[in-house]
Amino acid sequence: MNDVEVGRLLTVVKMLDQRAPQPDKAGMLRKLWQGLLAHVPFAAAKQATEEWYRSDRYRETRETITPADIAGWWRSRRREPVAPRGMIGAAAREAAAVLAEEAATRGMALWTHLRTGLELEAAVCEVEARRLVTSVPCPWEPCRAGVGQPCTDWKGRPLAKTAGGAHAGRVQAVIGGSTQV
């Protein structure tokens, strides 16, 4: 991963876990993570982060993810045996889907950047966080937004981005907490 990707990953971690270390002005945290995760692809690190915050271990201990957790996850995936030849087509389709998702994220981030004036990197982080939060249904009774749908208030209007754009129960569902409001 490069420096920008590490920044995006740290932003997602910070949004999911308030106890995550706060980046310093000198960028030492980002440089440290970048050095430790240089060999890990961004998509793999993002998947490891999502799995970590949905895991039983996180629910029990509430430990913040570390670069060692991500690198260990990646190392264990690399050791898995090679798939049979017939599964190569499925892997290619999955890779194409990942590339299409990343292209969609970049496009939505560019639109957010142009519309709101946010820096492009911040817009990418916002889009990724929004996509992660909408990957689970909202448990709040008046809302009940489905996967991929934005949360709404009690009148059916989409929540304002300034309010986070999602109910607390939905954010808790993403990080593996209780889905009760």
TrEMBL record:
Residues 128-173 form the DNA-binding phage zinc finger domain. InterPro entries: Phage_Znf_bind_put. This is DNA-binding phage zinc finger domain-containing protein. It comes from Actinokineospora globicatena. The lineage of its organism: Bacteria, Bacillati, Actinomycetota, Actinomycetes, Pseudonocardiales.
